[in-house]
Amino acid sequence: MPPQDCWMPPPGRGADGAPLAVVHEGTCDLVRVSIVRQRRSLRVAARPNVVRSRRPRLASAQKAKKPRDWQAAIATWQAAIAAFTALAAVGAVIFSALTVNASREAQFTDRYTKAIDQLDKTGADHLQARLGGIYALERLGKDSARDQPAINEVLSAFIRSTTPPPETTWPKTTPSCPDKPVATDVQTALTVLGRRDFGDDEGVYPDLSGACLRRADLRGANLAGANLSNASLSGSDLTGAWLTAANLRNARFDSEDSPHTSLIDANLKGADLSGAKFDGAYLGGADLTMTKHNGDTSIKGAHTSEDTKGRWW
């Protein structure tokens, strides 16, 4: 027991609940030091219990976080797979579109080649084949606008090469065509050219220069921008035809009533209008300088403008 004159706090208890014995060192100071050490050892002994009580909580928290991490990883993989699937689908669509386009181009080329082969067949026995080739080219021009300029050139060349060449009889200076109407296949080609969609021409207009188009049916035909220089249109019906900005230099017109023909901005320089009937024609901006005309030429009620050149009436 400590001395009576040395007050001491009551001893504490150990981890097992038993009272801690106080070692008497002979002085109050030593007693106090011993008690303090005993209390420190008590606190140190109690710490492992606290730590052990916290460890299960940390382990449970870590275990609780693991399922969430796996769920996030699974969601990320699912998003990646969905994106890859979408990209694969887009690639498949693009590849399919390119394949279809290539197939269509191949079909257009095949149709074009077959139509040309049909036009190349000559003679009366192959008339139906030539007509089929002409209509096949017309259909191709509607299905493939990019082929329209080439079709214009093919049909123009067909007309120029099929019609008989103009005859020149001395002392005439203007060539004349045989006195017979155009052939059936030539008329069909003219009809197809006259009803084409000229918006797809891309500056490639029909070239019928020097062609014999005697007594051709060109009613309402759209030959705007066409080259008809030195062509013979004697006896042709041009009622309501569109020859706007057409090149009609040295062309020949006669013996036919063709009212309301559009010749706006057309080049008629040196054209032979002897006996032509262009009543009510539209001649605004047309060039009529050096044209040939006689008493049978009729241009009653024609519409002109300040830009009309070579007006004689």
UniProtKB/TrEMBL annotation:
InterPro entries documented for this protein: 5peptide_repeat, Pentapeptide-BTB/POZ_domain
Residue ranges, annotated region (Disordered): 293-313
UniProt keyword terms in alphabetical order: Membrane, Transmembrane, Transmembrane helix
Keyword DNA-binding: no
Feature: compositional bias, Basic and acidic residues: 303-313
Transmembrane segments: 72-98
PANTHER family per record: BTB_POZ DOMAIN-CONTAINING PROTEIN KCTD9
The name this protein goes by in its record: Pentapeptide repeat protein
